Amino acid sequence: MRVRIAYSVHAPDWYRREINRYYGREGLATRDQVRDWFMAYGNSMDDDLAVQADQADRHEEETS
Question: Taking the CB of the first residue and of the last residue of the chain, which one, N or C, has fewer CB atoms within 10 A?
């Protein structure tokens, strides 16, 4: 049986930035990139992205 599931997510700028950083890209992930991310990982990588964002913020504070 084929079932279509559709849902929307809120992806703030920090989340979009960390998706791109995960792949070694700069800037914010596009809508399509966020969609692809959720198709691949769902919410399973949320904690990893949050830790990555926190580490990046700390690094920026130390270098300022």
Answer: N
pTM over 0.85: no
Where are the domains positioned within the chain? 13-63
Q: Which two tokens stand for residue 17?
A: 């930035």
Residue environment code for 35-57, b if the CB has 16+ CB neighbours within 10 A, otherwise e: eebbeeeeeebeeebeebeeeee
DSSP string of 11-26, one letter each residue: --HHHHHHHHHHTT--
Q: pLDDT tens digits for the chain (64 residues)?
A: 999 988 888 999 999 999 999 999 999 999 999 999 999 998 888 898 899 899 988 888 888 7
